[in-house]
Hints:
The chain is mainly α.
Amino acid sequence: xxxxxxxLWGGISLLPTLLYLxxxxxxxxxxxxxxxxxxxxxxxxxxxxxxxxxxxxxxxAASTPEENVLxxxxxxxxxxxxxLLLGAYVDGVxxxxxxxxALSQMVLRSTEENHRKMAGDLHEGVCQDLAAACLRxxxxxxxxxxxxxxxxxxxxxxxxxxxxTLRTAAxxxxxxxLAEGGLKPALRSFVSAYSERTGxxxxxxxxxxxxxxxxxxxxxxxxxxxx
Length: 227
């Protein structure tokens, strides 16, 4: 038995307004889930409108069943095309954002790897060579006359200052503790060295339960504190 529903207000049929009721939900699902959400929303609306056409009054109340079906098809086609296009656009934006994040992580890893290599070259290469040169020069200084030893001692101190500066630069580029012990000991060592070098007291508060984080997260957190 068919159920007759009267949707009238002031003599005007309210059935056409039913077309707009699912629109906000359809667009929200499309924006949130992309093409899959758009397809599901269009399928749900299609089944609902077909069920309504078979169960009672609809906005597609044409003079013949064929015209009614044609009107329903045109409505669903006109709705499905822009919704699916919007879903495809949303998927494209999401893929672009994912690629951008992946590229940023790749650049970060590459930068950290370059910093690690440069820090190793400075600490294990240049600094060690300067230290060896300083030791050899110290033996030569002993053979110099006393007036020249004062200048030689100043030169030795300059070399030692260069070594300390290079080691500090190597540590700033890639702190070994960050890779070996994680964020917590690396930050504590950095803050301690910073306070000792500048004379500025720095308070560092870290959660007791903090453990190892992903390498990229540890690098980003350390660089933020460093800045």
